[in-house]
Amino acid sequence: MIEATAAQPREAAPNETAEEDDDEAGTALLRTETKAELKQALVAVKEVADLRDEAAQGMFELYADLLSVDARYAWNKIVQEQTEADPYKDLQGLERKGPRGKSRKSFEDCVMFHLLTVFPNNAAEQERYYVTNVLKKPQRVSIRQFVQRVEQLNSYIAQLPCWYYSNSVNAKTVPMNVSFPEADLASHVLRMCPYAWQDQYNLHEKGGAPTDIRSLLQSLEAIERVCGQEGNAKSNPSRDEKPSGSEKKGTKRPGTDAIRVPKKVRTERNCDLCKKHGGAYTTHNTRDCRRFEKDGTEKADFRAAKKSGKKPNPTKQSFAQLSEKLDKLEKVLKKKDTRKRKRRRSDSDSDSE
């Protein structure tokens, strides 16, 4: 009796059938809504991609508009090689699968390739070395203008090519086109100032290293007002340089090929005899006097020269006088030539007879 009851199939309840129908209808509705959302998402992605491509195209065109004709030719060639070629070579010289298209990354790579046509591969390293070891504060530039210039140079480092963008890169090579942090840049600015300014800063700050540019600039401006424009550079020369008057006379100055010749000191001349008896006493000294003896009498040779008079100096004559003399000389020479010609004619007549 029990086995016969178990073998008969169980009929579904009306409530369960209704629930299954509701689940199927909900699933179909969810699928429909999901498909609609997916379609909207694809449309939105396409719109964003179009906007991205338009923005990238605008970056490339704006950069090209700022270039000259020659630079634009090189830029267009680089853009074609980096965005349309398949495969293309990256900044390290490795071949990549392409085409990569126009994007922010490809634009930055094209800009770096274009900079490499002008700058060397180690331009960033050279700029860092210049800031850390070479740059000094000029004499006639205020500290505020100088700090602004140093900050501008520091910002250029991030835009320059370095050894990382070359074929000689290896696993240990790191990009060096990184600007200095503010604390390091402040320390370099303090080192670029005169030694008198550094001593004053260390005295007031008790040897503490600067941490930011703003506080350092305030301290240096106060020192500039006290020490002067150049921090009394003339009275406090650089520790590595010698004073300007320490070198010997007639020696070469460092960095020049010319020999320093000492200036002649002009001494005043005074003749006591000419001053006493009359004459030009400021043109010679007493021992060189040619007019008077020690007792005040005139010398014999001076009297003879005075009677005979001075011979005319041809260099001091006027142009009219010289032209008259030249005319007279030409007339004399012409007369001599005519006499010679007459003699030659008379000789030739006698020979023919």
Q: Flag low-confidence runs.
A: 1-7, 230-240
Number of helices: 12
User: What is the topology, as strand order, of the major beta sheet?
Assistant: 1-2
Number of strands: 2
The profile of the biggest β sheet is: 2 strands, antiparallel
Shape, per Cα inertia axes: elongated
N- and C-termini, Cα separation = 193 Å
Q: Give the helix/strand class.
A: mainly alpha
Please state roughly what percent of the residues sit in beta strands, choosing from under 5%, 5-15%, 15-25%, 25-35%, 35-45% or over 45%. Answer: under 5%
**Radius of gyration, whole Å:** 50 Å
* Helix-strand topology string: HHHEEHHHHHHHHH
Helix content: 55-70%
Overall mean pLDDT stands at 79
Provide a short characterization of the protein structure.
With 353 residues, the protein is mainly α. The protein has 12 helices and 2 strands, in the order αααββααααααααα.
